[in-house]
Amino acid sequence: MAEGALEVVIDKEDYSIADIVHKELMNVKHVKFAGVPPPHPLIKTLTIEVSTDMSKPTKALEEALEISQKKVAELLKLAKEMFPLAPNGTLPPEEQERVESIPHSETAGSESEPSTDGSS
User: Fold this and answer.
1) Nearest 5 degrees, angle CA 73-CA 77-CA 82?
2) Chain-wide mean pLDDT for the chain?
3) Which residues are CB-neighbours of 5 under 8 A, at least 6 positions away?
4) pLDDT tens-digit profile of 77-120?
5) 81, 29 in Cβ contact below 8 A?
6) Given this model, what pLDDT does residue 118 score?
7) In degrees, to the nearest 5, what angle opens at C-alpha 6 toward C-alphas 4 and 10?
8) Is residue 38 part of a domain?
9) Mean of pLDDT values over 34-52
10) Which of 53, 54, 52, 68 lies closest to 10, judged by CA?
């Protein structure tokens, strides 16, 4: 690799991680190129390629990783505030009682059952 270039290979991770870091790398001042080639669908190996006008491209990657980590933490915090029941999937007792008291027809989907008398 040329000076100012860096290739990082990440095993056993989802493509979305590389995509987040790639997006932030594009906003780092000295980065001239950042790319993430699409991975093979059966192989969980990602490659992040970075080219900078700096002698230490790892600095640019570190900056992008820090920004990515902060943004993901903000998103996770927001998601937990908006969906407080999501992590464990259980309802507080008073909500569980309320849900159980709703007649079955109100909790069913919006689709109605087909008529057996031939009418639609």
Assistant:
1) 145
2) 80
3) 49, 50, 51, 52, 57
4) 888 877 776 655 566 677 767 767 777 554 444 444 444 555 54
5) no
6) 53
7) 165
8) yes
9) 89
10) 68
Q: What is the DSSP letter of 29?
A: T
Task: Specify the number of domains making up the chain.
Answer: 1
Residue 43 in domain = yes
Kindly state the tokens that stand for 8: 């990082």
**Is 99 part of any domain?**
no
On whether the CB atoms of residues 48 and 34 are closer than 8 A, the answer is yes
pLDDT for residue 89: 57
Domain with 22, as residue range(s), is 5-82
pTM of the entire structure?
Answer: 0.64
CATH number, position 29? 3.30.1360.10
**Dist. CA 54–CA 48, nearest whole Å:** 17
Q: What CA–CA distance (Å, rounded) separates 85 from 16?
A: 24
Would 13 be classed as within a structural domain? yes
